[in-house]
Amino acid sequence: MDPRRSQESLVSHYSQGIPPTQTHQTSFPQASSTTSWPSSTTCANPTSPHDIPKDRHSSSTTHTSGGHRSTNIPPRGVAILAGSAESEWLRIIQTIIQYTFKNPDLLEEALESPNSGVTCVGQSHRHFEDGNRGLAKVGQSAMKLLLRDQCYLFQIPEGDAEKIISDMIHFRNLDQLGRTTKLERFVRPKLYLRPTRRRNPLWLLKDDVQREDPSRTIARAVCAIIGAAYYDGGLEAAKGVMAELDLVINMPK
């Protein structure tokens, strides 16, 4: 069932006489957005178009960053490769979400799936060990809080509010948003098996078992982008990105 149709049918009963003009200000301590790490950390740099392999399973791209060791990592794109647009990831994503990051390294972290082969990004050498998983958890919490805030302002009963929030943050809905907005083209998936290991049936079986459903990869990246916006500009920034992605409750007129 379409989450937005379900949402409209549920909230239509509460739209009369409820002026959504109130604002709800919440202040949270902001985490540091830059971290310096030793020069042995593997960092990723944007690649030029000719670095993108035509067959994502035939080869990987080698990334290096001044003085850091190189590593073979997959190109950006989960369902569709970014191709020649890969080097323009920052400009394109900021246009899609209509938000300009003060610290773009946060956004770059949000695009790195766990086990993508990248453990630090950007000029600040921002370090992370588990891809965008941490930012995704923060983003999901921010979404729940902001949606809960709307439910309170619109006086939506608890049972209906729970269903609305559950439908909107469900991974299927977030996956669809990531695909329709084309954000998924800039998400880096899990590292692929080396060619020598692809000839081993045991390694192929292990990789197949551990390979994540692409829809969950995309959904996590959408959550992580909202989490990155929260750390960069607070709840108002996260709310603005959610609005651009149609992740807000729209009361019937």
Polypeptide structure, described:
- One of its GO terms (molecular function) is ribonuclease III activity.
- Residues 32-42, 59-71 have a biased composition (Low complexity).
- One of its GO terms (biological process) is RNA processing.
- The chain is mainly alpha-helical and 253 residues long.
- It has a single domain, classed as Ribonuclease iii, N-terminal Endonuclease Domain, Chain A (Orthogonal Bundle), CATH 1.10.1520.10.
- The chain has helices at residues 3-11, 89-97, 104-110, 133-153, 158-169, 171-180, 195-198, 201-210, 214-244, and strands at 43-44, 61-63, 71-73, 120-121, 126-127.
- It has a 3-stranded mixed beta sheet.
- Helix 4 (133-153) runs antiparallel to helix 5 (158-169), helix 4 (133-153) packs across helix 9 (214-244) and helix 6 packs across helix 9 (214-244).
- It is globular, with a radius of gyration of 20 Å.
Taken from the alpha-carbon principal axes, the silhouette is globular
Q: At the third CATH level, what is the topology name?
A: Ribonuclease iii, N-terminal Endonuclease Domain, Chain A
Looking across the biggest beta sheet, what order are the strands in? 1-4-5
In sequence order, what are the helices and strands, one letter per element? HEEEHHEEHHHHHH
In CATH terms, the superfamily is Ribonuclease III domain
- What structural class is derived from the secondary structure elements? mainly alpha
In this structure, how is the largest beta sheet organized? 3 strands, mixed
Number of helices: 9
Number of strands: 5
**Which CATH-level-2 architecture?**
Orthogonal Bundle
**Beta-strand level of the residues, as a percent range?**
under 5%
| Domain module count | 1
Q: In which range does the helix fraction lie?
A: 40-55%
The CATH class label is Mainly Alpha
Average pLDDT score: 76
* Low-pLDDT stretches: 13-41, 46-70
Q: Tell me the radius of gyration.
A: 20 Å
Distance between the termini: 22 Å
